[in-house]
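Fold this sequence, please.
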Amino acid sequence: MKFRKHLQNIFKSIAQKIFFLLYGKIKIDKLLNVVGFQKFNLGRKKNIYQISNGRVYTDLVEHVAVIKNNTIIPNISYQQVGGELKPLNFNKTLISGTPRIIKKFNGKTVTLVQGASGNNYFHFLFDIIPKLILCEKYISLQDVNFFYLPGELNWQKKILSAFGIPEKKIINSQKYRHIKSDIILGLDHPWYTKGFVHDEFENSPEWIIESLRVKFLKYSKKFDCSEKIFLDRSDSKFNHCKIINNSEIITYLSKKGFKTYQLSKLDFFEQIYLFNNAKIIIGAHGAGFSNIVFSNPGTKILEIIPKTHPRIIYKKISNTLNLSYSKIISEPVSKHERNLGDLKIQTEELERYHKDLI
């Protein structure tokens, strides 16, 4: 095993040297004396950056580097280490370079990559989409040749369709980790500028919530659904924030007039309608709760959160929209139950909330 690891390290070292020869070492220029780099103010203390003949590299997890003449560009490069945003000098390309074959895309490319978070529904909706909303105030998105994005999932394509962005214009960063384009356009993160990401959302600007409603509510797709909904996360590929006695909770709530929904089974535009139509929403903490951004004032929200995974992001949205928010914090489950999830709620706990919810 040690010998195999040793061989892997040798191969990695050789590959790194080859890529250094191909693309050179990446550096920081504190004065940013870069030819072919421009910055334009978009208002709201945000900017769009235009780089001619630039390139972008991502490790898909924590680091993104936007590069011109082997100089890394601040603000639109990204280095989130252990969940915390770090200064530019922490970007791993400064040490390891750009160890992937480059792919050239002709024309104008908007880069929207930011580590792994773009494949998470919450971060796609609240991090990446606000960038597009800002971007379309500056340029015609129809004039953009490509959009460099983390993934090309069906729900992502559906959301992008509201901007008139077809699938053929999407560059999947999971397939192309190192790209070059005649013009690269990048934007500041709409709200995350320091610290740990989940802590910082509490300070996010309200214009993001308002802009998402203005952009998407008109696409609401009506279907026959209940006003009392329970969000079922049992179809998630992750065990965290799963209720291990989920069937018991579904049975209990159905007797109270609730209908259960798995959001993965619904079209994005149907999800907008489901949350906009709902009067009461109950469910375990998860990205699907992002859709409360489409709910109406007075909607009652009950979020079930594991004690080991406290989050305040949905309270922030609720306060902004005048939703009636409350939460249940679940005690840690036993070791032998964790393979099923990390939440267990007794029906008696829900009963205590029932009169307030109806």
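The two ends are 60 Å apart (CA to CA). The first helix runs from residue 2 to 23.
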